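Memo to structure team: turn this sequence into structure tokens by end of day. - J.P.
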Amino acid sequence: MDITVVIPLKDEAESLPELTQWIKRVMESNQFSFETILVDDGSKDQSWAVITEISKHDSRFKGIKFKRNYGKSAALNVAFREAKGDVVITMDADLQDSPDEIPSLYSKVKNENYDLVSGWKKKRYDNLLTKNIPSKFFNAVTRKMSGIKLHDFNCGLKAYKNEVIKGIEVYGEMHRYIPVLAKWQGYTRIGEKEVEHRARKYGTTKFGWERFVNGFLDLATIMFIGKFRKKPMQFFGLLGVFAFLIGFITSGYLIVSKMINFDYAITSRPAFYISLTSMVIGTQLFLAGFISEMISRGAPDRNNYNIETEVGFN
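Reply from structure team:
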């Protein structure tokens, strides 16, 4: 099979008929063999009824329905398990991603041997303050921390070799960092293609400011786990030495000050206690977060989701 299209969605009943017909038209005109996996992430509207009807008329469209909303990463993770296409293309269901981009994305992976190709929505139709500016800042930080030169990490329109999506695990809010996850697994041929961004035709966005907060927390998690999971002493040892040196130098300064002036009251200064307490608590919290994350990643049920029903799968 040439292509698997993966579409996570929530409350997109209005856009699904148009989107699926558009995908079908593009695939057939390019003579691609394909399947499309639509993952209903706890929709409250008629999305699942629409998916069921579409699959009934064309078995190349398959559906997975979650019992409740788990998030985009969960939807991608379960669809990636089922994907059979040589190239896997992800896109959003709101018609802001154009299926006309599929052939060129497929070509870059298949013919130019990229492991992963990310879309770049250079011209966007989103709200400037709530999405465009935060997105630019988010992408700049991610580029700096990951070393991956992409303009738009969060673009839902991406293409992957099948082996890439089988070799990574997506959970939490990690979907926007799939290029980073892929890089840590050795898939370094990561490219970018400018793609069309269309104005939203139906409904409203399902994402708010909290996605940026969660996104930055997950970026920190990926960077630390990717670099230090198998050699944590290189990080924590350095942190410990640095903290010890600060304490040692400060203690030396206080001792010398006391020797010069015996009336110098070290422990009566609030700044002494505030700085000491902040350093200790900050180190403990970070260690606790790291250990908790390692335990979470090792939990056998970390990627088990309550799937209510499926349609189109044998």
